[in-house]
Structures are given as structure tokens and as C-alpha cells.
Amino acid sequence: MGAGPSGALLGGGRAAALPCPAMDYAGLAEAAAEKMGLYRRDPGGWRGCRRTSEVSVSWRPSAEFAGNVYRGEGMLPASPQDVWEFIKPVAGGPRTKWDQNVKDFEVVEAVSDTVSVCRTTTPSAFMRIISPREFVDVVLMKQFEDGTMLSAATNVEHPLCPPQPNFVRGFNYPCGCFCIPLPGEPDRTQLLSFFQTDLGGYLPQTVVDSFFPASIAGFYSNLTKAVKALKA
After folding, report:
1. pTM strictly above 0.90
2. What is the spatial distance between Cα 124 and Cα 101, in angstroms, rounded to a whole number?
3. What are phi and psi of 190, to 5 degrees?
4. For residue 4, is pLDDT > 90?
5. Is residue 73 within 8 Å of 217, Cβ to Cβ?
6. How far is residue 194 from each of residues 29, 107, 150, measured CA to CA in Å?
7. Which terminus has fewer CB within 10 Å in the chain: N or C?
8. How far apart are CA 82 and CA 227, in angstroms?
């Protein structure tokens, strides 16, 4: 996916192409959430690639695009509600403060109370080999009966989000985070996350394969520091 529909008149007074048909944002978000449930229940085929004191990272080939899906699993020293406050995808939330991979986050359209179309920009990374990226996703927030909270997302187009200069458009395929309560341990949370991202542009595969495990480890490390600081 790339540019959204253009609203400008072309040279010579010709009308621009008609807008794309409206995307079923809610349906796409729900499908992404269902994929997260399938990934969570399917333990097969994951290969470990990085382990730290905060997270175990594994991967397997993606069925969505010609890349990999990564799985991160770790325990955080805070309640699920506190962890959720740090990671939930809302405008003005703390994510841009603690997550070094998120420069800016904006809600483009609130589809419902639980579904929104969002634009995220990321700074340059990996010693500037990876230039700034932008992502446009539909995001679903969901709470389950056992108290587990899920944020799930997948890439979409939106007429208010044409590709911006100075950014490479990347694409998140179904991805998300589960905040899972631990019975008898109210101040600890299992955070299970899935990432499958096409960074776009022309990057050597070795760079991509090195970047994601390191980036996920950094995500868990920075989140752990953030929730510890909250309790200090």
C-alpha cells in the first residue's frame, strides 16, 4: 500500500482520480486481533534469536509478507493496568517519552471507542542506516474476561495520510501486544508481543535481521525502566 487518494486537480484542469473505496477499518482491526490470538496459541516454529534479562525474542517466517514475524515475551514488575497505560495507543500518551523507536504518534480518525486509524513516525535508527519511517495503521484495543488487554494493529491507507516527504513509508502487518495478568501476582505482568514490519526502502537483509531483535530488546528494556520509575 502507498499513497492515499489525491484531492488535487492535475495540470490542465483535469480532475484527479476518484478516491479509493472506503476501507473497512473495523473489520481489518478485528482481523488483526484474531491473528494475534492465533499467534499466541501457536507455539510451533519459533526460533530463538535474542535473550536478555527482560525479554526472550524469537522469530519465524511471516505468512503475510516476504519477511519475518518476531515474538517477544517478558515479565514486567508492574500491574497489567500500569503496563497498559504505558503502551496503549492513544494521543498524548507516554509512549513517545519512553519508546526510542516512536518519535510521534497521532490519531487520524477515531472509528469507534476501541478502533482508530493512527500515524506513527520513527527516528533514524541503526547508526542512521535506517532513515526516518512513517506508518499508518488501524489499531484495536480490547480487554478479555481474564483481565488480559490487547492492542492489535495492521497497515491501512487513509485519505488524510498521503506519504510525507522526508519519511519512508513502512508497513506493519498484523502485530500487537498482550498485557497478561499473573494469578496471585498483582504487581507483575506478562507482556507478549508480536512484530512484523516491512520497513520499506532498500535495506540490506542483514540490517533488517539485526535491527528487529535489538529493537525489541530495547522496547522491553525501556518499558521496564519506565514502569520501575513509576513505582519509585
Report:
1. no
2. 9
3. -85, 125
4. no
5. no
6. 15, 22, 11
7. C
8. 7
Distance in angstroms (rounded) separating the CA atoms of residues 230 and 202: 39
> 41-76: per-residue pLDDT in tens?
998 999 999 999 999 999 999 999 999 999 999 999
Q: What is the mean pLDDT of residues 189-198?
A: 97
- Residues with Cβ within 8 Å of 7's Cβ and at least 6 positions away in sequence, in order, are 16, 19, 159
Mode of pairing for the β-strands spanning 133-143 and 168-169? parallel
33 within 8 A of 140, measured Cβ to Cβ:
yes
Cα 169 from Cα 158, distance rounded (Å): 13
Do 137 and 120 meet the contact criterion of CB atoms below 8 Å apart? Answer: yes
What pLDDT digit, counting tens, does each position of 106-145 carry?
Answer: 999 999 999 999 999 999 998 889 999 999 999 999 999 9
Write the pLDDT tens digit of every residue in 175-189.
999 999 999 999 999
Cα distances (angstroms) measured from residue 106 to each of 70, 92, 171, 199:
25, 8, 16, 19
- Predicted local confidence at residue 6, as pLDDT: 29
- CA 94, CA 136: separation in Å to the nearest integer? 19
Place of cell 519465524: 60
Residue 14 pLDDT exceeds 80: no
Residue 37's pLDDT band, with cuts at 50, 70 and 90, is: very high
Q: Which residue has the cell 490487547?
A: 150
Instruction: Scan for cell 481489518, then name that residue.
Output: 28
Cell of 147: 483481565
Pick from 143, 135, 144, 140: nearest CA to 111: 140
